[in-house]
Amino acid sequence: MSEVLLEVENLRKYFPIRRGLFRRSAGSVRAVDGVSLQVHSGETLGVVGESGCGKSTMGRSILRLIEPTSGKVWFQGQDILKLTKPQMRDLRREMQIVFQDPYASLNPRYTIFQTLSEPMEIHNLYTSGERRQRVHSMLERVGLDPSYASRFPHEFSGGQRQRVGIARALMLHPKLMILDEPVAALDVSVQSQVINLLEDLQEEFNLTYIFVAHNLSVVKHISDRILVMYLGRMAELASPQDLFHEPLHPYTQALFSAVPVPNPRAKRERIILKGDLPSPASPPSGCVFHTRCPIAQELCQQQVPEWREVRSKHYAACHLIV
């Protein structure tokens, strides 16, 4: 097993709800509520769940793009939540993010060369000639012609813009990359190209990925382990083989039952969850999934389930798994 690159302990991010003339606090939205995990060097951790389950907020909190409410985040053994802004700025060379919408994350007034050279300028790396050479080299590495450096974002397709976003994240040779639904807005054919590119880059640069996505087939293909989240909390964590072959948590079972199968004659039980997704501003007591769980019991309403290893390297938070 490779060394632990990133360790998260009891991470929480609550967004305050303010109302009235004086904007007094009227509660909070529990976007991320007690996430603890380890990510090893060189692996890909997939993160899946319904919209609003806290996947993207967790990723941004780990990088301190938004400040966590509480918890600890260790990167290479260093607690990054205790670092000052100048110290954090230096550390950002090692930790980068690729956003879901490549057009929104690129400055429309910057050429591609300006976009890719900006990280090197911020960290005072290389001469102007070396920067130009590195920009052209990275564009070529992500499958774009170096002559595109003089173009603006609106002159590219969605897949090309996402390649620019990936190139920007790689300019400082980071060790950890958080990929926030990097192929969600792309056509299926382009998705496969970008996924293959990410796999090639991971092997070439020894990258570690946290891959946030909705598409379960994509996550299964690229991930070494998959974390399933529900309403800001961890539901299940296992390898793709274990998770797809034998999902243990009732929410994971319902989530996977919605995945279409290629054989139209194949019969599979479809698990329909009852009720609506609860609000993260007032999550249910006990197990947050009990209001929609088809096998919930009285215990589930009263006690928060323990996060435990229920099979070898297969973790879940459910009272009813034996």
Report on this model:
It is a single chain. This protein is of the alpha/beta class and 322 residues long. It has a domain at 93-217: Rossmann fold (3-Layer(aba) Sandwich), CATH 3.40.50. The chain is 31% helix and 25% strand. It has 11 helices and 12 strands. The protein has helices at residues 55-62, 85-91, 102-105, 112-122, 128-141, 158-170, 188-205, 216-222, 240-245, 250-257, 298-302, and strands at residues 4-19, 24-40, 44-48, 70-75, 78-79, 95-98, 176-180, 208-212, 225-230, 233-238, 307-311, 314-317. The strands form 2 sheets. It has an 8-stranded mixed beta sheet with strand order 6-7-8-3-9-10-12-11, with helices on both faces. A 4-stranded antiparallel beta sheet has the order 2-1-4-5. Strand 11 (307-311) and strand 12 form a beta hairpin. Helix 4 (112-122) packs across helix 5 (128-141). The longest helix is centred in the middle third of the chain and has 18 residues, at 188-205. The model has no long low-confidence stretch (mean pLDDT 92).
The level 1 CATH classification of the domain at 93-217 is Alpha Beta
CATH superfamily of the domain at 93-217: P-loop containing nucleotide triphosphate hydrolases
Order of strands in the sheet with most strands: 6-7-8-3-9-10-12-11
The SS-based structural class is alpha/beta
DSSP summary: helix tally: 11
H/E series: EEEHEEHEHHHHEHEHEEHHHEE
N- and C-termini, Cα separation:
27 Å
CATH architecture label of the domain at 93-217: 3-Layer(aba) Sandwich
- Average pLDDT rating: 92
Radius of gyration: 21 Å
Could you list the spans in which at least 5 consecutive residues all have pLDDT below 50? none
- Total E-strand runs: 12
The largest sheet is:
8 strands, mixed
The helical percent reads 25-40%
Share of residues in strands: 25-35%
Q: What's the CATH topology label of the domain at 93-217? A: Rossmann fold
Overall shape: globular
